[in-house]
Amino acid sequence: MTPEQSTVLVVDDDMSVREALSDLFQSVGLMVEAYASAQEFLKNPPREGPCCLVLDVRLPGKSGLDFQHELNESDVRLPIIF
Q1: Lower CB density within 10 Å: C or N end of the chain?
Q2: Distances (CA, A) of 44 to 3, 29, 36
Q3: What does the pLDDT read at residue 61?
Q4: Strand, helix or coil for residue 16
Q5: At a CB cut-off of 8 Å and minimum separation 6, what does 56 contact?
Q6: CA nearest to 66, candidates 53, 54, 81, 56
Q7: pTM of the predicted model, to two decimals?
Q8: For every residue of 29-68, which 3-state class applies, written as one string?
Q9: What tens digit of pLDDT does each residue of 12-47 get?
Q10: Which residues contact 79 (CB under 8 A, 6 or more apart)?
Q11: How far apart are CA 20 and CA 7, in angstroms?
């Protein structure tokens, strides 16, 4: 039995931030799934396993705080770092 690979989920509308965070997390052996918007995240749910969400507070349209509320209302429980 092998331990599950941890994944960091990044939601940020700024491509340079997504790329920088992805590079940083991958450099320490974490898997990364990056999304440009909350809508993109919802269309492509993350794979199973341990994960956390790094979420931009100031997303265009639906803010990061609004998205957090939506996730809670949908009973999606993820550790979130803003």
Answers
A1: N
A2: 24, 22, 11
A3: 87
A4: helix
A5: 11, 12, 13, 14, 17, 64, 82
A6: 56
A7: 0.90
A8: CCEEEEECCHHHHHHCCCCCCCEEEEECCCCCCCCHHHHH
A9: 999 999 999 999 999 999 999 999 999 999 998 877
A10: 52, 53
A11: 16
- For 58, the token pair is 């100031």
Residue 48 in tokens = 């199973």
Fill in the amino acid letter for 7.
Answer: T
Residue 5 has what pLDDT?
84
In total, the chain counts a number of residues equal to 82
At 72, list the tokens.
Answer: 């809670």
Q: Extract the tokens encoding 24.
A: 């940083």
Mean pLDDT for all residues in the chain = 91
